[in-house]
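User: My instructor asked us to take a sequence, write out its structure as tokens, and then describe one feature of it. I'm not sure where to start. Here is the sequence I was given:
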Amino acid sequence: MLLSERLQTFVALGDFLRSADSQPELNEIVQQANYRNNWFTLDNSLNSLRAIADEFLVADKLTAWANQYFAESTVEFAKKPRPVGVVMAGNIPAVGFHDMLCVLMSGHKLMAKTSSHDFVLIHYLIQKLKEINPAFNDLIDEAERLNAAEAYIATGSNNTARYFEYYFAKKPHIIRKNRTSVGLLMGEESEDEFLKLGHDLSDYYGLGCRNVSTILVPEGSNGEPYDFTPLLRTLEPQASIYLNNHKYQNNYDYNKSIYLINAVPHLDNGYLLVTENDALVSPISVLYYQTYQTQADASVWLTGHADQIQVVASAQGWYPNSIPFGQTQRPGLTDYADGVDTMAFVATL
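Assistant: Let's start with the prediction itself. The structure tokens for your sequence are:
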């Protein structure tokens, strides 16, 4: 299959996903996904699918991205596709799609081990690709075992990564571990910036590695504490969005009770708990913070934790190599997980 055919297939998929409001079958699928995984609300699943369509599956974006790696006249993968095993995560809706896109756009065969938490959406997207272009029937296999794969891409926890490293050690592989994202505040953010940061904190209930779970806030010149009131007050009206999900409500109630019983200093706006903690990954419904005195101090801290950080976000992207608040959950084609170029990996197999 030529590169142009693969590109046209994914563009057609993007067109279909963008017409979600007029597609009864797609609405039925997101309801099935919600039934199987209560974290995958209808809004969250549709938002994820729209982001995939708008950020990944647009003709000019796909073409420019693919042209960075190969020209159609030099592609030989269609003659000898290699089976690539992909162990997909399932923390947010359709999170494994980008890996699937990389493998198939490069002309290789996808052996997908889907997460039980995200089976419905990924399976549906695979079936839709096959429907759009039947040639993909021979290039996609939803597999329980990946023994036949010649290369691997696996996403999991720090614990599962050790097993992946052991089992996949003898073949080319990308192994991803736990990561999280950090927000850097300068103390002059507007209400609009706080609203955008709220999406980075709580979209998909904070379950993604691109969700901000720790923020760095400035200390005053005399050591006075950072005032969280404007941030918490701005986000307070969003409480009902998250507390309507019983799983989020249970996490909020549990963490709040633990903090109260153990007299842990914290702030609370009705759905989000904020507490100082030097860990990076906060529990659901909790935001950790740490303080810094100078930008240089913040830079040293971020550099020291770089191997645990997926994304750094700041207001309008003012901090070097950061992204603007509100954009953490809308990655582009070249925003590779863990900073490892997935397309370069599969394109050179």
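For the description part of your assignment, you could build on this observation: The first helix runs from residue 3 to 18. Try explaining in your own words what that tells you about the chain.
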